[in-house]
Amino acid sequence: MARNAKTGLTYAAAGVQLEAKDRFTESLTSIMRRTHGPRVIPNPGGFAGLFRLDYNSRLFARNYKDPVLVACADGVGTKLKLAAAINKFDTLGIDLVAMNVNDMIVQGAEPLFFLDYIAVPKVDSAMLTDIVKGIADGCRQAGCALLGGETAEMPDVYAPGEFDLAGFAVGVVELSRAVSAERVEKGDVVLGLSSSGIHSNGYSLVRRIVERAGLDLHGVYDDFAPASRSPGNKAASGKAGRKPHAAAPPLGEVLLTPTRIYVDPIVKLLRAYRVKKVITGMAHITGSGMEGNLCRALHKKVDAVVRRGSWPIPPVFSFLQKHGDVDTEEMYRVFNMGIGYCVIVRPAFADSIKERLEKLGESVHIIGEIVKGKGDVRWG
Fold first, then answer.
1. 155 Cβ partners below 8 Å, 6+ apart?
2. DSSP label at residue 221
3. Which one of 3, 89, 148, 322 is separated from 171 by 20 to 30 angstroms, measured CA to CA?
4. 3-state SS, residue 101
5. Hey, what CATH topology would domain 181-200+258-379 get?
6. Homologous superfamily of 18-42+63-177 in CATH?
7. How many CB atoms lie within 10 A of CB 151?
């Protein structure tokens, strides 16, 4: 017996709108193309993106002698839920790219291309376009191509208002130039590059602080007024007032400040020292803070002694600590506390490398040194 076409099940009836998804996917072509360079091979309608490792024009050639591919995958955690709470999605894509490429350059690699995965209960073109534009912005900052991605519409997995992001980056490094922890020696200097704020870790704690303290994500707090942004500032004790202030953004926007992308200055720094291996280690300071990440750049015969107070702490951390009544040790265990990336260098080059990075737009601080030890990070 033939099924009645009017009562038979369809994909749309199951909650998936193929036409809306297809229209959204087609609308992304121009956004992606803005990230493409001469090594991206056009492949309209293809099932995968194509990218040349070397380019056959002398102008663009990067003739690797012993190239090694480097790959990363990461997301932005529960920062997504904070973005959904204030309906602001345009910076999440920058976070997504940053969390991948900042990990990649630690190995001495140069990012080549990026892919994304977005899972939603229903295609919301405006929201998704904001996210993908952010991804493209991040890719341009990182000098890599947005080669493709996937949008998965899964109403049975994600409740209305829920979604998830994941990113995947591929890069390349000349094997002889790959950064190895074995190069780190006693006497090396630790340089800290300032973060732009919380970056993309610790947001489960951030959201709990906001909830328990009754903070207003749309409110403007005097802690973030320009006068509160002096180096080394610590927010005053007591309850912060909410005051209209044209120069201070709402709390939600402060908490959504995108992760700083360190690719351009680090890649340029590495190219400046192709012969001398004066950069002995690097670390991206993410979840678990300084102690949980800088140690990954060390071998088992050295420690890093880091001096608290040797860099300014952004007001957002003092604000969260105050309103959450969070212990100082817990703050340093969870958050970057103002240092998003570390570079370990030979002592004779510390000042010149600091100056070079500052000319490339970074705020750099000498925050510690390498001593004999067991592969740990200690506070000095």
1. 14, 15, 16, 121, 122
2. B
3. 89
4. helix
5. Phosphoribosyl-aminoimidazole Synthetase; Chain A, domain 2 (3.90.650)
6. PurM-like, N-terminal domain (3.30.1330.10)
7. 17
Q: Report the alpha-carbon distance of residue 133 to residue 258 in Å, rounded.
A: 13
Q: Check: CB of residue 363 under 8 Å from CB of residue 282.
A: no
What dihedral angle (degrees, nearest 10) is formed by the CA atoms of 351, 357, 363, 365? -30
List the structure tokens of 78: 């529960």
SS (HEC) of 294-331:
HHHHCCCCEEEEECCCCCCCCHHHHHHHHHHCCCHHHH
Q: Are residues 149 and 118 in contact, defined by beta-carbon separation less than 8 angstroms?
A: yes
- DSSP string for residues in 158-187: S-TT--EEEEEEEEEEEGGG---GGG--TT
Q: What is the pTM of this model?
A: 0.88
**Which two tokens mark 121?**
């209960």
β-bridge mates for residue 111, sequence order: 171
Report the chain (380 residues): mean pLDDT per 10 consecutive residues: 58 73 74 89 84 65 79 97 97 98 97 97 95 98 96 95 97 93 97 98 98 98 73 41 65 98 97 92 97 98 98 98 98 98 98 98 98 97
CA distance between the termini of the chain: 81
String of b and e for 88-110 (b: at least 16 CB within 10 Å)? bbbbbbbbbbbbbbbbbbbbbbb
Alpha carbons 107 and 70: distance in angstroms, whole number:
8
Structure tokens at 340: 């998003």
**What residues does each domain of the chain span?**
18-42+63-177, 181-200+258-379
* Residue 4 Cα distances to 7, 13, 14, 18, 295, angstroms: 6, 15, 17, 22, 65
Tokens of 287: 């979840």
* Beta-carbon count within 10 A of 296 CB: 15
Place of tokens 């493209």: 136
Pairing of strands 189-194, 339-345: antiparallel
- Six-digit token pair at 270? 């590495």
Question: Would you state the structure tokens that stand for residue 46, as one six-digit string?
Answer: 């293809």
